[in-house]
Amino acid sequence: MTLEILTPDKKVFEGDVTAVTVPGTLGSFQILKDHAPIISTLEDGPVIIKASTGEEIFNIKGGVVEVLDNKIIVLAEAVVA
C-alpha cells in the first residue's frame, strides 16, 4: 500500500506501508492491505504508520482520509511536533 500525508503547506510523508492507524471521528481505526474504499473525517490525534522499516507517528490536527485501491491519502489541517 502507498500512503501520502498532505497539509496545506507541504507533503509530510509518502511511501509504502503495511498498516496505518488514523484518529477517526468515532474512534481510531486501522487500514490494512485491500481495505474497502472509504472516506472519513479525522480528529486531532496520532497517525501511526507501520512499514517494513519500522513505525512512525505523526500527530495531526484534524482532516480527512481517503482509501482507494491500496492508496491512502491523509489530508491533514496541520501536523504538530
UniProtKB/TrEMBL annotation:
<feature type="domain" description="ATP synthase F1 complex delta/epsilon subunit N-terminal">
    <location>
        <begin position="1"/>
        <end position="78"/>
    </location>
</feature>
<comment type="subunit">
    <text>F-type ATPases have 2 components, CF(1) - the catalytic core - and CF(0) - the membrane proton channel. CF(1) has five subunits: alpha(3), beta(3), gamma(1), delta(1), epsilon(1). CF(0) has three main subunits: a, b and c.</text>
</comment>
<keyword id="KW-0813">Transport</keyword>
<comment type="similarity">
    <text>Belongs to the ATPase epsilon chain family.</text>
</comment>
<keyword id="KW-0139">CF(1)</keyword>
<dbReference type="InterPro" id="IPR020546">
    <property type="entry name" value="ATP_synth_F1_dsu/esu_N"/>
</dbReference>
<keyword id="KW-0406">Ion transport</keyword>
<keyword id="KW-0472">Membrane</keyword>
<dbReference type="InterPro" id="IPR001469">
    <property type="entry name" value="ATP_synth_F1_dsu/esu"/>
</dbReference>
<protein>
    <submittedName>
        <fullName>ATP synthase F1 subunit epsilon</fullName>
    </submittedName>
</protein>
<dbReference type="InterPro" id="IPR036771">
    <property type="entry name" value="ATPsynth_dsu/esu_N"/>
</dbReference>
<comment type="function">
    <text>Produces ATP from ADP in the presence of a proton gradient across the membrane.</text>
</comment>
<dbReference type="GO" id="GO:0012505">
    <property type="term" value="C:endomembrane system"/>
</dbReference>
<dbReference type="Pfam" id="PF02823">
    <property type="entry name" value="ATP-synt_DE_N"/>
</dbReference>
<dbReference type="GO" id="GO:0045259">
    <property type="term" value="C:proton-transporting ATP synthase complex"/>
</dbReference>
<keyword id="KW-0066">ATP synthesis</keyword>
<dbReference type="GO" id="GO:0046933">
    <property type="term" value="F:proton-transporting ATP synthase activity, rotational mechanism"/>
</dbReference>
